[in-house]
Amino acid sequence: MFQWFFGWLRNDSFAQCRRWCFALLGLTLPALGAPANLPVDEIADGVFVIPAPLADATPENGGRVVNSGFLVGRDGVIVIDSGANHRHGEAILATVARVTPKPVKMLINTHSHPQNVLGNSAFAERGIPILATAATAVAMAERCPNCLASLRQSVGDEAMRATRIQLPDTTVAASQVLDASGRQLRLLQFGHGHTEGDLAVFDEGSATLFAGDLIYSGQIPHLSEANTSGWIAGLDQLAGLPIRILIPGRGPVGSAGDIAPIRRYLSELKQRVSVAYQEGRSADEAIRLAELQEFSGWHGYAARHGRNVQHVYFEIERLDLDGRREGRQ
Ligand SMILES: [Zn+2]
Asked: What is the distance in A from the centroid of ligand 1 to the CA of 99?
């Protein structure tokens, strides 16, 4: 009897049952007046993802367009990314509470973009420490006031009610291993990539990578704060990890195989724009010359690819002008 019970605990049907239980809770709690419930999926033992749709921020989704997640350890929980506003942060905390009675011990912000950090205030209200890279803390202090205003324009006042900027209170300046309630978490920094201070989190026990926005899966990435060369170099380092499960910042849960497509997008974009620049073409001409058909089916291609071409064009131009200036000195 005991053998059967422990076998069932380990097997797939138990995992299915847990998923159904969480889904049913999600359907029943709103009727009881609980906070809006988010979907949640246990993708490895004690590792949960709160998936977001492949979408841009709108009043309908309230800015919930990036994946969050959490890891349940021996005596507490680590949450990764707090959502787009105070209410979203509250909903993430309510989702954790549906799954486990253990307290949330720490929030990790993967980077400074508003959809990842503007739920921080819900965590700070409960005295939960917030960890990020030092560069992310600086970028948040500089940009979050504008980001908050622009996200409010996209999703409306109601979704952003009670949202305030809450900076991280703990910063890390280099990669390190964190013992988080018995889970060994590798906090990985590769310098300026998608943003100035990206942090990826690798749970060694389950070989799960929370990649933040270093990985977009099926969606054209945002490059507005990016260093494209640094981003590609960071992806090459991620590819060296023994990843079993990969949670991208945007898109469905996948595997290490999801690193190659985003790397190819960035490197082909860079290569095409570089050729256009060398030929003396303008940034507007480069947009036409750097169409990437392979990625035209990704969400956001029409809206964002042209802007990405321009971003890379100006990166190349800046490097070129800096090189010439140094050559004259
Ligand atoms: Zn981002």
From this structure: 27
